[in-house]
Amino acid sequence: MRAFDPYPCPRRRGAWLLATLLAGPLLGALGTGCAHLEFRRDTATSGTFTSTGTAVTLLTWDLPKAALMIAQENASDARQPNLRVTSERVYPYLGWFDWVLDLVGIRYARIEGTWGFPQSPAVEPAE
């Protein structure tokens, strides 16, 4: 009696092996925390913030979504008044060779900005 082989075709065996090898890193990347948000107060009503996001890219699909979008949504969900982004950066950026990271890669985005209303100096009444 022959042993049962669920994948008798070598092509199917290779596809199953590839899916198995990709499943581990993919599940590991999706299971980790991929965002961070930090607020620093400068005055009683205003300050600065930094928001980051990380995403895994497989065959041009960003998982769970684009890193820059994760960072922006994270800052927006804080609902701070007068939130303004002053700087956005995505790492790594390879210029024309950026398509290499669209096949398989990890992207990290960081946005910085200000929030709130700066205190104005007290206005003295005119005499």
Architecture overview:
By secondary structure, the chain is α+β, with helices and mostly antiparallel strands. It is built from three helices and five strands. The protein is elongated and about 85 Å long. The N and C termini lie far apart (108 Å).
Give me a quick take on this structure.
The protein has helices at residues 10-31, 67-77, 99-103, and strands at 35-41, 46-58, 61-63, 84-91, 104-116.
> In terms of structural class, how would the helical and strand content be classed?
alpha+beta
In percent terms, what proportion of residues is strand?
25-35%
The shape, in one word, is elongated
Element string (H = helix, E = strand): HEEEHEHE
Number of helices: 3
Helix content: 25-40%
Arithmetic mean of pLDDT: 80
- Overall radius of gyration: 24 Å
Low-pLDDT segments, ≥5 res: none
Strand runs, count: 5
Largest sheet: 5 strands, antiparallel
The end-to-end span amounts to: 108 Å
What are the salient characteristics of this protein?
127 residues, elongated, alpha+beta, five-stranded antiparallel β-sheet, 30% helix
Layout: helices, strands, pairs:
Elements: H1 10-31, E1 35-41, E2 46-58, E3 61-63, H2 67-77, E4 84-91, H3 99-103, E5 104-116
